[in-house]
Amino acid sequence: MTLSDPWLFTLKLCTTLGCGLVAGAFFAFSTFVMKALGQQPPAQGIAAMQSINITVINPWFMGVLFGTAGACLVLAIAAGVNSQQPGAHWMLLGSLLYLLGSIGITIAFNVPLNDALAAVTPDSPAGATLWAKYLTTWTLWNHVRNYLDAMEPRSDCCCPWCRSPGDPRPLASGSLPSTDCRRRSSGM
After folding, report:
1. Are 72 and 23 in contact (CB under 8 A)?
2. CA angle 108, 114, 116 (to 5 degrees)
3. Which pLDDT tens digit goes with each residue over 29-44?
């Protein structure tokens, strides 16, 4: 197995799409959902977020969130097995960014905050106190995981058109031109 195997290319492409979908969901919460909930009276904001936290547990979102994590785990293993091949370290880095951002931060920070919010009565004084802290802390960690998820596709891990310098493989018909992502990303 090499990093240029067709199945690995397909896995990188699917991971790119999964990262984009998850980052997009997190971006929506960071840029307007949490702000809108924070503008509501605490009881209404809490009730809405409690509902969101239940509704988000569905096959579509969880399938993309954890399916992408599984794909990143496979890519990380492939990068380790092929560590001497060009681009392996970028593939490992991209995989770890997603696993740390989407899965690690979600489990370590966002889920415990969601669990604490689920335990309060929306119109109680304890709920209002928790809500003030929740809005700030949950959103901060959401910004962090969104940033890490958005960085993941910039690595060679999920940039299926990025190729190592000197890669002799011809481009498939309709593919984007050969690019060295490390050179391009270093200027951004």
Report:
1. no
2. 100
3. 999 999 999 999 999 9
